[in-house]
Design brief:
With about 700 residues, the chain is an alpha/beta fold. Mean pLDDT is about 85; it is low at about 1-5, about 265-300 and about 605-660.
């Protein structure tokens, strides 16, 4: 008798699914069963997949791959068994269809040498490895899927199997005998066994397996951790059939993320006009031109995706900080600093930050890192296992990184926030202050949310990178002393125009700071950058002149855009941007902006939790009787003409609310501050003046 198992040999699945296995399995996988299963897969793919390129994982002898190819799908079949693939190829040839066949160990040969697919199907090929290997497999599936691609994952339900589990069984037909011997281990969830196969007069062969048997909830958890959204769960190859504990085969229909770009990666490969163009005008590039109009026909664009001219209003203080730092130590000396005794720069930074924000910040409440981006990345690890709750239209990076680490992301709206905190009890709630539409909600609203989140075991991460325009007195940093579940992030990027320093600060209560430092890289803030940043912060509020200019110009910009047909939300007076709703007469497409010689930042269609002009205020919680603070108004709505009418730090949370789906894109439009850029803007909209 030959035995296919060797202690030092390859994984069991590389030798198990050979000719002897298929001699037995052919009696179970009848043509009628294959046709029914393929019909189910085709129905799901026809209605839910974004295209017809399909990857069949663990395709075996090509039962489903050949059938799907015959229905017009472009199929690639992948399996680790050479014998099975040889037979699959013969089956495809006999059926007159084309299937691309690849022999790959799906659990160990990563990344897979395959292209991009609209859908992946995996039928009776899940559980061969460890839980960690299965998670890596699902993450690799996500990698090869197009954004919004579909996964149909089938598995054998251990709840149904356990009720009829027998340690030994036999199967016999003419010329074939199979003796099944197996053991199920509750602690590991694995079924290990062997099949002794006798075919005719040949010597018996013993093949061994070791399968992880999953409950459906465990499979859902793996899919979520891999970044998928489960859309539906079917039973026994029937669309819409609700699985029961006795359902033998359970099928998850899951979708990969739609692929909205991260805040940083959205600009990869694009020309950075701030670094290479004069402040007055920023030329467009061919790579960024829209296909509907030839790039060479475009006028030079006024780039309103950012405000390169704001630096002129803070330059004296920034230059003075650089001179002071270098006069005291010099660039070389500062760059040699390697403070192992103060790896998070807390001892050096805490006294300066205490004076800057007007409160006593102990070193164990401060963590310096590589800008707000680096600290957000650390907070993504803090968010695991999730879920992560975020507001629609908010900064996307932390939720995306958390999803990569296996945390589910849930998007909510202001008016649903309290109810969703209680419903989902997330690990982390991510807030932006100000919001994308410029709402600088105040301490009162934040504190109510922090209290509600604390009752749900949720950490609140408040990103205040854009709040610097309002000055240190308007910051919510003082709230960390009262709320042990609150992290406030600040940086030197916005307003100070010193993003290249790569310095940011996280403020939190001591215990939460300890947790944050466990996952934040030490020595993230370089010596030279930190020295400049602390000297600049020591000068207090340096934004008075910038705020005055913004307040002077912003109403004119908003009025001009409204006359051109854009629905405008101005937000707080101190912020150097307005937002426009693409559902209006202007802005349905970026081409309309570029035809005027203007470029703006397109946020894209969002499930809007923010109002355009004329919206009424919102209510934190939005539903009476659901959690602390529900049904309680935290701020007044925007004033007439779409302006919030709020100064720095005033007002309650959600005061620019107003929910609903925004079909068109949302545009963020920087206010031109220099006379040259303002003139160029007014010229571009001369017909609206």
């Amino acid at each position: 008798m030959s035995d296919a198992r060797r202690q030092d040999g390859p994984p069991w699945y590389l030798t198990f699914f050979g000719e002897d296995f298929w001699a037995v399995a052919d009696h179970e996988y009848t043509p009628e069963r294959t046709a029914a299963e393929a019909g189910y897969l085709a129905a799901v793919l026809d209605t839910s997949a974004p295209g017809r390129r399909v990857l069949d994982l663990g395709c075996g002898t090509g039962r489903h791959a050949v059938a799907l190819a015959a229905r017009g799908f472009g199929v690639t079949g992948v399996d680790s068994g050479g014998w099975a693939l040889g037979r699959a190829e013969a089956e495809a040839d006999a059926a007159g269809v084309r299937v691309d066949w690849l022999r790959i160990d799906l659990l160990r040969e990563l990344p897979w040498p395959v292209g991009e697919f609209d859908a992946v199907v995996c039928v009776q090929s899940f559980g061969w490895g460890s839980d960690a290997q299965q998670l890596r497999l699902l993450q690799e599936v996500r990698r090869v899927l197009v954004p919004g691609g579909l996964l149909v994952l089938d598995h054998s339900n251990v709840l149904a199997i356990a009720g009829n589990y027998v340690p030994r069984a036999t199967f016999e037909t003419e010329g074939l005998y199979a003796d099944f011997r197996r053991t199920y281990r509750m602690a590991s969830g694995r079924s290990t066994g062997e099949i002794e196969v006798r075919r005719g007069d040949a010597d018996p062969v013993v093949i061994h397996d070791d399968v992880r048997m999953y409950q459906p909830a465990e499979v859902r958890d793996l899919l979520t951790r891999a970044g998928f959204t489960v859309e539906r769960v079917d039973g026994d190859f029937a669309v819409g059939r609700e699985p029961a504990p006795t359902t033998r085969y359970v099928h998850f229909v899951a979708r990969s993320p739609a692929g909205s770009p991260a805040a940083i990666t959205a600009w990869e490969g694009r020309h950075d006009t701030r670094a290479s163009a004069p402040a007055e005008t920023c030329p467009s590039t061919q790579a960024e031109a829209r296909p509907s109009t030839p790039a060479e026909a475009r006028p030079s664009a006024l780039d309103l995706r950012w405000s390169p001219d704001e630096f002129e209003f803070v330059r004296p203080w920034v230059d003075a900080a650089f001179r002071s730092a270098y006069d005291d130590g010099g660039l070389a000396e500062l760059s040699r600093a390697y403070p192992l005794s103060d790896p998070y720069s807390a001892d050096r930074a805490a006294p300066v930050l205490s004076r800057h924000f007007g409160l006593d910040l102990a070193p164990d409440m401060v963590t310096a890192g590589a800008g707000a981006t680096g600290l957000l990345h650390a907070c993504a690890a803090l968010a695991v296992p999730g879920p992560v709750l975020r507001l629609a239209g908010g900064h996307p990076d932390l939720p995306r990184w958390a999803a990569r680490l296996g945390a589910e992301t849930i998007t909510t709206r202001f008016e649903d926030l309290a109810a969703d905190l209680h419903r989902y009890t997330p690990s982390v709630l991510v807030l932006d202050r100000p919001t994308i539409t410029g709402d600088l909600f105040g301490r009162e609203g934040l504190e109510e949310i922090a209290e509600t989140a604390r009752a749900c075991g949720t950490t609140v991460v408040l990103d205040e990178a854009y709040a610097v325009y309002a000055g240190p007195g308007a910051s919510c940093v003082p709230a960390v002393a009262e709320h042990p579940n609150l992290i406030v992030l600040r940086s030197m990027s916005k307003g100070y125009c010193c993003g290249g320093l790569r310095v940011g600060f996280a403020f939190a209560a001591p215990e939460l700071t300890r947790r944050l430092r466990e996952i934040t890289p030490p020595l993230g803030a370089g010596g030279a950058g930190l020295a400049v940043a602390l000297r600049l912060l020591a000068r207090g509020d340096v934004f008075g002149a910038l705020r005055n200019r913004i307040a002077e110009v912003k109403p004119l910009v908003a009025r001009t855009l409204r006359r051109a047909g854009l629905k405008v939300t101005e937000g707080a007076d101190c912020l150097p941007w307005v937002t426009g709703d693409g559902d209006g007469e202007l802005g349905a497409t970026s081409v309309e902006w570029e035809d005027r010689g203007v470029r703006v930042k397109e946020i894209g269609p969002v499930e809007a939790s923010y109002a355009a002009e004329g919206a009424s205020g919102t209510v934190f919680g939005g539903r009476s009787g659901e959690g602390p603070g529900s049904g309680e108004r935290l701020g007044e709505g925007p004033g007439s003409g779409g302006r919030s009418g709020k100064g720095p730090g005033s007002g309650g949370f959600g005061s620019s609310g107003g929910a609903g789906h925004r079909d068109g894109p949302l545009y963020k439009i920087a206010v031109p501050l220099s006379e040259a850029r303002l003139t160029a803007f007014l010229d571009a909209f001369a017909d609206a003046r």
